Request: fold
Amino acid sequence: FKVGWARVQRKPRLAVFFVAMFLVATVHQFLAMAHLLLFGKKATRGFAHFLMGSFYGWFGPFLWGPFVFEGAENLPRADEPCIYLANHQSSVDFCSIYTFPNKAHVVAIAKSSMKYLPGFGLMTGLSGGIYISRGKKGTMAMMLELGKKRIADGLSIGIFPQGTRSVPAKGVPLKPFKKGGFILAVECQVPVVPFTLLYPDDFMSSPGAPKGVRIIVHPKVQPGDDADALMEKVEKVVTTPLIEAKEALPDRRTDKKEN
Reply:
């Protein structure tokens, strides 16, 4: 549960979040499977995404507080394939994409172990999600191949390029971005939509109602022909608000409670 948070006092709320997530997804998977049998794989992607969005789009803010957008005018049209990229801080992060005002169909690139999560794993796959095995030979080639197919089908891709969760803290470096999503953007020549997820420092520890999540949508970035240059530019855009915010936080290098 901690994954870098100084304190976690919201374990009951986290438990409710995960139990509801798995229970609702388990019900949804039967509806989606019936739809698959009747209408086929591609049609079911949209239906599965609709089911997930209809739940997480309200359940995330209901449980964790408002998801407040800044720069929503920077969002592209829903039918414009893009690569959506953000920092990764919490298990709540994935809910953000279902609250986006443009209602884009964004499919996730996720680690393969997530496919075994009850209900949620199958629903992610049925909606068009791509599972990858980290560190396994051929993973990058497979991700690029499937990513190109999703984009060719008019879908957008969502990636947390840090790979694992990284909670901003003074004195603790942010995890660096990985290049896979940027290679995909360059090879498919689709723009990147960078956004920053900002949580209150006491998001997991405040005894009161959660204060919600601040989501900064930055102007989209054209891919160009250099994945490294694209990654450097987008990483700076996404992490600058995080770096500014964490400068006001306590230095956790001297905090004995830090894990």
About this structure: The mean pLDDT is 89. The longest helix spans residues 11-39. The longest strand covers residues 192-198. The CA atoms of residues 36 and 43 lie 8 Å apart.
